[in-house]
Backbone:
């Protein structure tokens, strides 16, 4: 048991609050949206924050500091995973957007991930989980 | 779009300076240094187009994160997210290179999006970045001028009214970029951000606008949280199409004290301007308060007191101690008090507030108490003169009777009406309130030295301030222990001198005992 785990164990003289509805855990959220790699998280957050990006995988790669092939593959996976959508291509670029018709469960998980990524602590937490997943895979 | 073919920007104050708006399809360039408000003016141009004129729009950004743009806009109450969901707005993040190729491409996604939402306006944030994109996909080198011409042509073909923002810098290539862009744009708006003392002053100037006239010169730009941009027309600009000057032959009492009205020729004309000059503490504010009360109570005119020195609560309290109850008039709105701190005074917006108050409340009598604080706050004699010229012109246009209190720096006697910023020539009437030292006491005196169109007295009379305000000391009941004021000459020249020659009492000559 970790120290953190011990802190969670109720003590005899503690008043235990009534249980609040549980938000999905970070792990569940990442699983829920099918994110297993840090690069996937970075590309997803980029697309989320830029709303409608008229760009190419190359350009996104340059902006977030990945190799073009990695970003290109990630964009394909995110699209297959129904997280993002892309328009028809024009002169080598597409519109990349978060999928508008995302189901509620996906949406909830995505919101939590985005929310976590807005703080350094949250980002470290996400990166830690993804690393684990990365190591496990 | 309005019937006159002008597109309204919807930005408060800007369309008025543009004399209605900007000709549709004019390419508008907004340029300025970092932090001058370029992205904001572009965002508001698009937002107001959608919200007020049902003209959908596109915002194209190269460097700004759209998320932050939406967040910042929300601070002004503009819900860009909602407009995107309603398909009235599309914010597009792209690169200058992609933007350029998209505008030239027959199957452009960007133009397809514009057509889908029925866009009529487009804002491109950071057009200068296109200068880094001078080699096209066919490896052909183009000049920035050519690239910009192609861009403008493409937008014009799509019938989009475009606004570009351009960052101004001091580097040689930045200046060259600005010169080229200025030349090709139809309307050039320059935003300024300058330090005035320790505060920041934002300005807006229209450098050119093809196909229309506009108010030239530097106007004030303000950015207010929750509202957005507001442009205040510079005060000195003449009002278009308002050259007719109304006049009135109606003469009214100043403070309801007959003797004073007699002194100034039976009262003053409606629409006249009067300067009251005097040292601090001589009674200028009391006179101002009485002027407004007289107007409100007896002549049923609405009054406005403007002060940069005293808070309304203090003005009301001080008046109360003299039995001049302002509280009721302030409560029922017949007298307004406008107070602004001189430290943060922005003269263009201050003037706009005065005009708004006058028009909303139908003010007919105004007292500015006092001008010295304006000279300190404004600093520049040209701007100071412009402000008072504008106030005088506006007062006369409305036939509003206006009084300016001016604090003369000389304690005893007056050698010059306004030694720092001479403005006495622009007013119709000039009243001097002076302190005169006789024996070992100071006496308050009033003299009317100018009253256009009236037969006024040139006598200097003693007055006192008591319950009810200012009243003249009767000539025959002078409280001066030794001799009345009329026994002295050179009262205003710092050296009152007693004389024993015949003097006037109530207009009649009399002989005074030698002594």
Residues:
């Amino acid at each position: 048991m970790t120290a953190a785990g011990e802190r969670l164990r109720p003590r005899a003289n503690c008043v235990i609050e009534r249980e609040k509805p549980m938000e999905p855990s970070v792990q569940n959220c990442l699983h829920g949206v099918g994110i297993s790699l840090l690069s996937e998280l970075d590309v997803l957050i980029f697309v989320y924050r830029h709303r409608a990006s008229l760009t190419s995988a190359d350009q996104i790669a340059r902006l977030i500091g990945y190799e073009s092939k990695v970003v290109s593959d990630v964009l394909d996976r995110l699209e297959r995973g129904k997280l993002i959508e892309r328009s028809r291509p024009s002169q080598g670029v597409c519109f990349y957007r978060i999928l508008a018709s995302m189901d509620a469960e996906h949406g909830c998980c995505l919101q939590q991930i985005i929310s976590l990524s807005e703080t350094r602590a949250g980002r470290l937490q996400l990166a830690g989980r993804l690393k684990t997943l990365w190591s496990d895979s | 779009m309005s019937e006159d073919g002008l597109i309204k920007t919807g930005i408060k104050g800007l369309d008025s300076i543009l004399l209605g708006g900007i000709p549709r399809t004019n390419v508008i360039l907004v340029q300025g240094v970092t932090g001058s408000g370029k992205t904001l003016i572009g965002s508001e141009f698009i937002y107001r187009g959608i919200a007020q004129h049902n003209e959908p729009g596109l915002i194209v950004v190269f460097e700004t994160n759209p998320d932050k743009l939406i967040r910042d806009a929300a601070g002004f109450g503009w819900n860009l997210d909602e407009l995107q969901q309603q398909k009235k707005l599309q914010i597009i993040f792209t690169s200058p290179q992609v933007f350029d190729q998209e505008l030239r491409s027959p199957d452009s996604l960007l133009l397809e999006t514009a057509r889908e939402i029925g866009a009529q306006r487009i804002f491109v944030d950071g057009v200068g970045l296109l200068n880094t994109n001078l080699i096209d996909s066919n490896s052909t080198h183009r000049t920035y001028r050519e690239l910009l011409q192609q861009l403008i042509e493409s937008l014009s073909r799509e019938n989009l009214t475009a606004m570009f923002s351009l960052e101004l810098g001091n580097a040689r290539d930045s200046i060259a970029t600005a010169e080229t862009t200025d030349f090709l744009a139809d309307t050039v708006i320059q935003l300024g951000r300058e330090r005035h003392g320790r505060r920041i002053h934002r300005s807006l100037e229209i450098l050119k606008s093809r196909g229309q006239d506009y108010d030239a010169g530097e106007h004030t730009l303000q950015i207010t949280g929750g509202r957005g941009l507001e442009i205040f027309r510079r005060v000195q600009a003449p009002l278009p199409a308002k050259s007719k000057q109304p006049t009135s032959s109606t003469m009214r009492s100043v403070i309801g004290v007959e003797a004073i009205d007699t002194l100034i020729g039976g009262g003053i004309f409606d629409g006249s301007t009067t300067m009251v000059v005097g040292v601090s503490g001589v009674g200028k504010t009391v006179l101002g308060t009485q002027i407004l009360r007289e107007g409100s109570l007896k002549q049923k005119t609405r009054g406005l007191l403007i002060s940069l020195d005293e808070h309304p609560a203090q003005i009301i309290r001080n008046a109360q101690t003299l039995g001049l109850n302002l509280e009721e008039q302030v409560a029922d709105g017949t007298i307004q008090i406008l107070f602004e701190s001189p430290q943060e005074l922005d003269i263009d917006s201050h003037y706009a507030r005065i005009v708004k108050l006058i028009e909303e409340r139908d003010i007919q009598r105004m007292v500015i108490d006092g001008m010295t604080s304006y000279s300190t706050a404004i600093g520049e004699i040209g701007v100071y003169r412009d402000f008072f010229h504008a106030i005088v012109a506006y007062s006369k246009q409305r036939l509003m009777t206006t009084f300016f209190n001016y604090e003369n720096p000389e304690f005893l006697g007056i050698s010059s009406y306004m030694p720092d910023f001479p403005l006495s020539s622009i007013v119709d009437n000039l009243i001097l309130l002076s302190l005169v030292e006789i024996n070992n006491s100071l006496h308050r005196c009033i003299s009317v030295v100018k009253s256009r169109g009236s037969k006024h007295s040139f006598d200097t009379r003693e007055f006192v301030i008591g319950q009810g305000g200012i009243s003249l000391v009767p000539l025959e009941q002078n409280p001066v222990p030794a001799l009345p004021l009329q026994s002295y000459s050179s009262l205003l020249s710092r050296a009152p001198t007693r004389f024993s020659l015949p003097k006037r009492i109530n207009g009649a000559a009399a002989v005074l005992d030698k002594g």
Q: What stands out?
A: The longest strand of chain A covers residues 94-98.
